[in-house]
């Protein structure tokens, strides 16, 4: 089970408790840079997170597992199920990230101007002014995840969110259930529908009224859905 950005295994515990009552052994860890885990020494890509998960399976002699991922964990799942299908038996993703959305034209223009001015200041030796400009820009336009992250995790966030994983989704080789909330504003429902269309063997189940943490809004229903998937022929 893999959590989302900014979360930890604490966010997975309610679902894990319900799955354990159904007879499952739930394996969880804080991804590097989150919870009690150290952050990586260098910025991670989503492929690095997938490699981390494969290393975990190898260290615990786990040939194959069922997988659950939320948001960032969904990104990782898309990589794992495409690149390592023998290690993933079946997969359930909740509100998965992985589809890159092109920013509006005005946003792209603003970013281009910012980089131009900042690099210009650095070129003339005005490092203090360039640093101040960076700080002001991030405070005004950076997401909360970006503002609250350390330098290494900021670069990790940039690398992760800028990679579109639809090509991986098209190569997912395991049965997949997508659990979504119709009120999700972080990864809107249209993304779930797009992944359902792209993943060869996928079904989308929508929790009405649920947000970005749809599996936590309806943990019993989500656990029952996962149990039906994992026990099915």
Outline:
The protein is α/β, with parallel strands linked by helices and 233 residues long.
Describe this structure in words.
Helix content is 50%, strand content 11%. The chain folds into two domains: 9-98 and 163-231, Alpha/Beta hydrolase fold, catalytic domain (Rossmann fold, 3-Layer(aba) Sandwich); 105-157, no CATH class. The two termini are 22 Å apart. Helix 9 links the parallel strand 3 and strand 4. Strands 1-2-3-4 form a four-stranded parallel sheet, sandwiched between helices. The chain has helices at 13-21, 46-59, 72-83, 105-123, 127-141, 144-148, 151-161, 166-169, 189-198, 214-217, 219-231, and strands spanning 65-70, 88-94, 176-181, 202-207. The model has no long low-confidence stretch (mean pLDDT 91). It has eleven helices and four strands, in the order ααβαβαααααβαβαα. It has 233 residues and is α/β, with parallel strands linked by helices. It is globular and about 65 Å long. The longest helix is centred in the middle third of the chain and has 19 residues, at 105-123.
